[in-house]
Design brief:
Elements (H helix, E strand, L loop, with lengths): L1 E3 L17 E3 L37 E3 L2 E10 L4 E5 L2 E10 L4 E5 L5 E5 L3 E3 L4 E4 L7 E5 L11 E3 L12 E14 L4 E13 L4 E4 L26
Parallel strand pairs: 1-2, 3-5, 4-6, 5-7, 6-8, 6-9, 7-10, 8-11, 9-12, 11-13, 13-14, 14-15
């Protein structure tokens, strides 16, 4: 089911599952509310086998070079920046960005893919982006299951992104088993897939259409059938 609260806008379709409904304030849905004909099967996540090397918790600005890594905990301190050079594959048992911290990716040589097994926490005013601001450059794959295991913390803290500061997440999040609650003033450019998603006031998800023509196997998986111009509200 999809429930629309007041002052929520969907510039696209809001399609529930085959037996689902869309309720609430429907006036701001620009596309279709027709239920999907079938359920969507999400692919299983396979974590790369990389030997763990302990925790990565620098107290200052830091950098990670291209390669494959497995950290028991990856935590970036308040107002510090982690710079990652791609291509890189990073497995984390737990991932946390503390308030005001940044992850900046140089993907000129290739993208950076994260696999987070348990906790995934973004505190207030954090930023994740590549130097080209392309959502193809940064991918988060979350194995977290906080539905069956409430002890797992998947958290986008309140005021994760402050519009005034320009904080944003450019990238994709794939969390097929997680319930994700996004509090006020979070903004993402890319895509978000989760088992359940709740968006609070002023949260914004901008789907990047470039993702529709690119998959991990470099095959087209979606095709644009039609489009129309709508006036700004």
């Amino acid at each position: 089911n999809i429930t629309m609260d007041s002052n929520i806008g969907v510039f696209g379709d809001a399609s529930p599952g085959p037996t689902g409904t869309v309720t609430g304030d429907l006036d701001n849905i620009m596309g279709s509310t027709t239920p999907l004909p079938t359920g969507v099967e999400l692919p299983d996540l396979i974590v790369p086998s990389i030997a763990p090397s302990g925790a990565y918790t620098p107290l200052g600005d830091s950098s990670i070079s291209s390669g494959s890594y497995h950290f028991t905990n990856l935590q970036i301190a308040i107002n510090k920046t982690l710079t990652i050079t791609g291509p890189a594959t990073i497995v984390c048992d737990n991932f946390k960005l503390k308030s005001g911290s940044k992850v900046v990716v140089n993907a000129s040589g290739g993208p950076v893919k994260f696999y987070v097994i348990n906790d995934f926490i973004l505190n207030s005013n954090t930023q994740i982006y590549s130097t080209s601001y392309s959502p193809l450059d940064v991918a988060f794959n979350l194995l977290s299951d906080n539905i069956l295991d409430p002890g797992v913390d998947v958290s986008f803290d309140e005021d994760l992104v402050d519009f005034d500061s320009g904080s944003k997440l450019y990238g994709t999040i794939f969390a097929p088993s997680a319930e994700i609650t996004i509090d006020s003033n979070f903004e993402q450019f890319g895509s978000l897939v989760a088992r359940r998603t709740y968006l609070y006031s002023d949260a914004r998800i901008h789907y990047d259409e470039l993702l529709a023509t690119v998959s991990q196997d470099a095959q087209n998986v979606f095709t644009t059938l039609c489009w129309r111009v709508v006036p700004l509200l």
